[in-house]
Task: inverse folding
């Protein structure tokens, strides 16, 4: 969206004279308290039920079952469980006083330190499958399980989980390093088979690299995305709904894991975006939600309760192909909308499509498993749930997705206010100019100008052609008798707000929830965990130095993101807005900015700030 200088004037004019302005449509204003209560936290709590002791976790060993009906697990499965524990602990949803995160991790580490390895002492390689009931190799307790050793794919996933555990619990680093040394993972990494291709191969190589295991195969795999990108750029690609994709085995699972767990960027994220685009476009084509991935399947239509791979691209069979583990060639069944993928895609891309897909799958009876077993594996494209198919992987993914939703920082801007489909999904909020709110002040018109600056900047990255604006009093309710405030529903749930808490009720509502906030004690100023910042004026009352806050807050109760931009004075607000509109790099959950004299007249003004005559800098970054 491009808006010229004349349009800026028009937008500013309308913002001044009407409470709500939108280029495309009018929005009804209804102030009511949101009825959502911890949307993603509640989903994570449901998923965490799978890992309750006596359900998906065996009480005697502390080890987990890969599925409700299969009391075994692979190294890939164990990686899922470790990451689920970390995410659940960060989300604060582990409430069992005995089965804490530390207790669960201790059980896992004890198993890894003592588990039986391949009986050939020259290898010391883990087996493929272990029994959660007793920790023994699976082949010793079930004659139907082959006596096989693990593979690079499963091991790579476990190593990624152990890397994240080291980061989360640094005191465990030596134990984890010794566990890795106990296993001959170099031998595993030297295997030429079961590495997969493309995204899978690149993703699992990150685990080996994290522990300095560099074999020829690992090094090749770390270059996999560059190789595929070179092929696409040279003309070797397949076009799927207008998206140029590598000719490789492509599904979403390694993509969403690579983004959520490792923040893989660059080429990896570029092609993940194209795959997502293809899924959304296919939905528009066929009219059914698309969440192609891999996972368990039931015995419907007599195909056997096997593991499915839903390939968006294959080198051999074309595109949109479903294959069954252990069976050569494609099979003809309706695609599965995998629950874990629905939630992961929404956590990553935050689009109308993903949001509606989440609502769809949650509307289907039985998706939340009975008897507190978490979520079921998925729903067939024709609406049939996979009856009683419940896995650790699905529920671990959902917990991980809930954590990812709240993990964005200022460094990600303009995302999530520009979503994964390049659409502007934010309502812009300025304070009303008349006295209002519990502080009974009116906002400055400079806040309006700041909102226009940022709207223009976000518009450059957006394909949208509309802007939605509100006055704070349109969307924030306030009861002076109880001093209670609440935020009502808005056209776009994500909010971008301008003006500090003294003049903007929305900033006032969120102020005490922020790591950098304003306080009126002793006069309005900014406080952070370690510092205080005060506006400076000269003996004529002119502003010499001002400070502002830019903060990103995820409101779990509304499942929305709020970008709060405000200064101690009007100069601080416009300077903070300029940081965003000028694209100055920022990071963390909040930053404090300073604006000071830059043109030599010993004071600062609104006019000189917008004409880049003053000095604007970042004083503090709050993680």
Result:
């Amino acid at each position: 969206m491009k808006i010229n200088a004349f349009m800026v004037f028009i937008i500013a004019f309308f913002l001044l004279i009407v409470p709500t302005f939108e280029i495309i449509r009018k929005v009804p204003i209804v102030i009511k308290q949101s009825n959502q209560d911890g949307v993603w936290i509640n989903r994570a709590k449901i998923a965490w039920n799978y890992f309750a002791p006596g359900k998906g976790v065996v009480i005697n060993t502390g080890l987990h079952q890969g599925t409700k009906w299969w009391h075994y697990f692979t190294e890939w499965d164990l990686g899922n469980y470790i990451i689920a524990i970390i995410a659940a602990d960060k989300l604060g949803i582990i409430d069992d006083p005995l089965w804490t995160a530390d207790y669960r991790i201790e059980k896992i580490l004890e198993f890894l330190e003592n588990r039986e390895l391949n009986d050939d002492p020259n290898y010391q390689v883990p087996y493929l499958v272990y029994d959660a009931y007793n920790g023994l190799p699976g082949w010793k307790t079930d004659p139907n399980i082959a006596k096989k050793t693990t593979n690079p794919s499963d091991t790579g996933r476990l190593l990624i989980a152990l890397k994240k555990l080291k980061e989360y619990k640094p005191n465990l680093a030596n134990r984890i390093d010794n566990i890795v040394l106990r296993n001959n993972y170099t031998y595993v990494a030297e295997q030429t088979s079961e590495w997969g291709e493309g995204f899978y191969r690149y993703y699992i190589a990150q685990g080996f690299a994290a522990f300095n295991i560099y074999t020829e195969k690992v090094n090749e795999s770390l270059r996999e995305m560059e190789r595929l990108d070179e092929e696409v750029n040279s003309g070797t690609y397949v076009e799927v709904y207008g998206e140029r994709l590598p000719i490789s085995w492509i599904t979403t699972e390694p993509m969403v894991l690579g983004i959520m767990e490792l923040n893989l960027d660059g080429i990896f994220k570029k092609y993940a975006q194209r795959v997502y685009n293809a899924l959304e476009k296919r939905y528009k084509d066929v009219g059914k939600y698309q969440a192609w991935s891999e996972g368990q399947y039931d015995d419907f239509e007599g195909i056997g309760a096997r593991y499915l791979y839903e390939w968006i691209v294959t080198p051999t069979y074309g595109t949109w192909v479903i294959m069954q583990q252990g069976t050569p060639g494609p099979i003809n069944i309706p695609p599965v909308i995998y629950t874990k993928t629905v939630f992961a895609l929404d956590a990553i891309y935050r689009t109308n499509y993903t949001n509606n897909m989440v609502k769809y799958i949650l509307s289907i009876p039985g998706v939340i498993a009975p008897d507190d077993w978490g979520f079921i594996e998925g729903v067939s494209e024709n609406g049939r749930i996979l009856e009683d198919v419940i896995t650790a992987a699905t529920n671990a993914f959902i917990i991980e997705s809930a954590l990812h939703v709240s993990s964005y920082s200022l460094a990600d801007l303009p995302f999530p206010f520009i979503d994964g489909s390049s659409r502007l999904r934010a309502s812009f909020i300025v304070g009303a100019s008349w006295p209002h709110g519990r502080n009974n002040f009116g906002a400055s018109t400079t806040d309006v100008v700041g909102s226009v600056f940022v709207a223009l900047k976000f518009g450059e990255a957006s394909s949208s052609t509309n802007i939605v604006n509100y006055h704070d009093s349109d969307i924030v309710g306030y009861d002076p008798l109880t001093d209670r405030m609440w935020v009502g529903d808005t056209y776009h749930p994500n909010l971008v707000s301008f003006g500090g808490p003294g003049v903007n009720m929305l900033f006032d509502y969120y102020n005490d929830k922020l790591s950098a906030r304003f306080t009126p004690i002793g006069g309005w100023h900014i406080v952070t965990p370690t510092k205080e910042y005060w506006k400076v004026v000269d003996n004529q009352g002119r502003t010499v130095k001002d400070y502002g806050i830019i903060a990103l807050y995820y409101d779990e109760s509304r499942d929305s993101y709020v970008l709060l931009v405000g200064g101690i004075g009007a100069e601080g607000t416009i300077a903070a807005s300029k940081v965003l509109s000028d694209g100055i790099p920022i990071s963390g959950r909040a930053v404090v900015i300073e604006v000071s004299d830059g043109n030599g007249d010993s004071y600062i003004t609104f006019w000189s700030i917008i004409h880049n005559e003053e000095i604007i800098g970042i004083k503090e970054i709050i993680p």
Summary: The chain has two domains: 39-405, 411-622. Residues 411-622 form one domain.
